[in-house]
Description:
Blueprint: H1 2-8, H2 18-27, H3 55-68
Amino acid sequence: xxxxxxxxxxxxxxxxxxxxxxxxxxxxxxxxxxxxxxxxxxxxxxxxxxxxxxxxxxxxxxxxxxxxxxxxxxxxxx
Length: 78
């Protein structure tokens, strides 16, 4: 993501959702300067058919969601 590259290089200021740069903030490559007044939460819904010829791909995406979300994030994948 080009915005993250610019921030990582120390060139600029951006209002960006933390989930897009959580790893970079954690590693210190990007600096968080303001957490906001109140924490905002977004719910991600992932819907799929019960039977699909793409079940392997769907299971892969579900696994990515589970791995990428931190333990403090609530993840419900059915």
